[in-house]
Write a structure and sequence with these properties.
CATH superfamily: Bacterial extracellular solute-binding protein, family 7
GO molecular function: carbohydrate binding
CATH class: Alpha Beta
InterPro entries: DctP_fam, TRAP_DctP, TRAP_DctP_sf
CATH topology: D-Maltodextrin-Binding Protein, domain 2
Pfam families: DctP
Protein name: DctP family TRAP transporter solute-binding subunit
Number of helices: 14
Strand content: 15-25%
Order of helices and strands: HEHEHEHHHEEHEHEHEHHEHHH
Shape: globular
Distance between the termini: 12 Å
CATH architecture: 3-Layer(aba) Sandwich
Keywords: Signal
Number of strands: 9
Helix content: 40-55%
Number of domains: 1
Length: 331
């Protein structure tokens, strides 16, 4: 674990030094404003990452690059934001990995259930050669992958009953992200998996048209899901990255020294957000318990892992050699 942490830290420091070296002089640069959008609220980790990025970029470009943040899906849902980046109507965003994988299929390899045993293991892969290779593939669809922040390990909530094993999920209507790996994972676990955008899911939970959803603790807390969801299972079934991503139309208009600053700032802001998430999780869980949510800390993980074997059989080959490479890196 310490090796993973050290390698991530070293990468952050080296990127910071590169950024600082290339940020030497912005006197001749025309000022530019970049619109950075995300779909969650100002208490969420995405906003924490975005504001840290804004602070670093504006400081290091001597104010020549101004970042305007649009939270709460004010510019659209995540697919809409990515499509906007491709054509230049949105400049950049912090976007959950699932929707990004609809544009570069191999990105979904990270979302295979129970792939990463710990956050540190995930960081080592994401910040290393495999993760960078996949970020670079986004250029094939007119997007610039910059760095991996995180959505985090995802957990199950529902309004109907305590869930300890896959049998308890039978028939529950669970919202999942619009991504086939998520949909198939929850169908294998016995749920009625319903893909929908997050903004729609919030309304559906309030109206009772779905029973539950799955998300990291920080999302469950920041959106007060205890008001509609009585039960949480700490299934940690999937580790979901989030990506600092920019549209190529905006990226290609920036001078090289500004590009260097943005890349370094994205990596540092991502690492900062990961750290904040880790520090906040235990407090958030306690707050949810205090609000009356029943939380199962020790579900039957072996039963859950056994149930999703068909997902690996279905998707493993779809990701080329990425799955075996990740598994080898995790050994």
């Amino acid at each position: 674990m310490k090796t993973f942490a050290r390698s991530t830290l070293a990468l952050g420091i080296s990127l910071a030094l590169v950024g600082a070296a290339n940020a030497a002089d912005f006197a001749d640069m025309d000022p530019v404003t970049l619109r950075l959008a995300h779909v969650v609220n100002e208490q969420d980790g995405f906003h924490i990452a975005a504001t840290k990025f804004e602070e670093l970029v504006e400081e290091r470009t001597e104010g020549k690059v101004d970042i305007e943040i649009y939270p709460n899906a004010t510019l659209g849902d995540e697919r809409t934001l990515l499509e906007g980046m491709q054509i230049g109507t949105v400049d950049m965003g912090v976007i959950t990995n699932g929707p990004v994988a609809n544009f570069v299929e191999e990105m979904a390899v990270f979302e295979l259930p129970f792939l990463f045993p710990s956050p540190e293991a995930a960081y080592a892969v994401l910040d290393g050669p495999i993760g960078q290779e996949l970020l670079d593939k986004l250029s094939e669809v007119n997007l610039k992958g910059m760095a991996y922040a995180e959505r985090g390990f995802r957990n199950l909530t529902n309004s109907e009953r305590a869930v300890n094993s896959p049998e308890d999920l039978d028939g529950l209507r669970i919202r999942v992200m619009e991504n086939p790996v998520y949909t198939d994972t929850f169908r294998e676990l016995g749920a009625n998996a319903i893909p929908m955008a997050w903004t729609e899911a919030l309304t559906a939970m309030q109206q009772g048209t779905i029973d539950g959803q799955e998300n990291p603790v920080n999302v469950i807390h920041s959106f007060n899901l205890d008001e509609t969801q009585n039960y949480m299972t700490l299934s940690r079934h999937t580790y979901a990255p989030a990506i600092f991503v920019m549209g190529m139309p905006a990226w290609s208009q920036l001078p090289e020294n500004a590009q260097e600053v943005l890349l370094a700032a994205a990596q540092e802001a991502a690492e900062y957000e990961r750290q904040v998430n880790a520090e906040m999780e235990s407090e958030q869980l306690q707050a949810l318990r205090d609000a009356g949510m029943e939380i199962n800390d020790t579900p039957d993980m072996e039963a859950f892992q056994a149930a999703v074997v068909p997902v690996y059989e279905k998707y493993g080959e779809q990701f080329g050699d990425y799955l075996p490479r990740i598994q080898e890196a995790l050994k």
